[in-house]
């Protein structure tokens, strides 16, 4: 199927095909954010009934790719918007994006065991000589950088996932649970706005000083034991995070 045509024999429901076509046009900047997407226009374009058109627009609205103006219609939201709900399990963003059809990719540094910085040892209550698994991850959606994360995981010395696993599967936390039975129970987050440093700007493909959303997370395993730490820098205009209080 081409990027702008429906394939009636693919087995993929029509509303999903329409949604994917429109999503790609929105994230690529092809769709005009000032021009509403009307049912009449989409009916004429795709030659289908109203039901798949309405379902596609409903899904795009829920996922943050379009928004509705009362009495004016449905408009594209510029950029690869990612609307992350609060109930995603720790380390599950990659799988969440994959399930949404956003085709995430990762560039991961080689995991290594290191003594973490003093500030981090204090936050986690670690002894001075305890080494943690450390790696960085730059996650992109549709080829556009979205999240630049610095990750430390408290784990047995034998736990050392490969770069290939982290890039293809996404979650070191899931692997830790499968191999050692260490289950994450909860996570605590702190979020703030900040300006991109030169290094962050280079990684995320933005101008130095651009607004970023910083989210610092401490992971806890069963029993409230600190299990890891992550600082993730997000493109502020493309990422929305839900909190539960």
From TrEMBL:
<dbReference type="Pfam" id="PF07702">
    <property type="entry name" value="UTRA"/>
</dbReference>
<feature type="domain" description="HTH gntR-type">
    <location>
        <begin position="12"/>
        <end position="79"/>
    </location>
</feature>
<protein>
    <submittedName>
        <fullName>HTH-type transcriptional repressor YvoA</fullName>
    </submittedName>
</protein>
<dbReference type="InterPro" id="IPR036390">
    <property type="entry name" value="WH_DNA-bd_sf"/>
</dbReference>
<dbReference type="GO" id="GO:0003700">
    <property type="term" value="F:DNA-binding transcription factor activity"/>
</dbReference>
<dbReference type="GO" id="GO:0003677">
    <property type="term" value="F:DNA binding"/>
</dbReference>
<dbReference type="InterPro" id="IPR000524">
    <property type="entry name" value="Tscrpt_reg_HTH_GntR"/>
</dbReference>
<dbReference type="InterPro" id="IPR036388">
    <property type="entry name" value="WH-like_DNA-bd_sf"/>
</dbReference>
<keyword id="KW-0804">Transcription</keyword>
<dbReference type="Pfam" id="PF00392">
    <property type="entry name" value="GntR"/>
</dbReference>
<dbReference type="InterPro" id="IPR050679">
    <property type="entry name" value="Bact_HTH_transcr_reg"/>
</dbReference>
<dbReference type="GO" id="GO:0045892">
    <property type="term" value="P:negative regulation of DNA-templated transcription"/>
</dbReference>
<keyword id="KW-0805">Transcription regulation</keyword>
<keyword id="KW-0238">DNA-binding</keyword>
<dbReference type="InterPro" id="IPR028978">
    <property type="entry name" value="Chorismate_lyase_/UTRA_dom_sf"/>
</dbReference>
<dbReference type="InterPro" id="IPR011663">
    <property type="entry name" value="UTRA"/>
</dbReference>
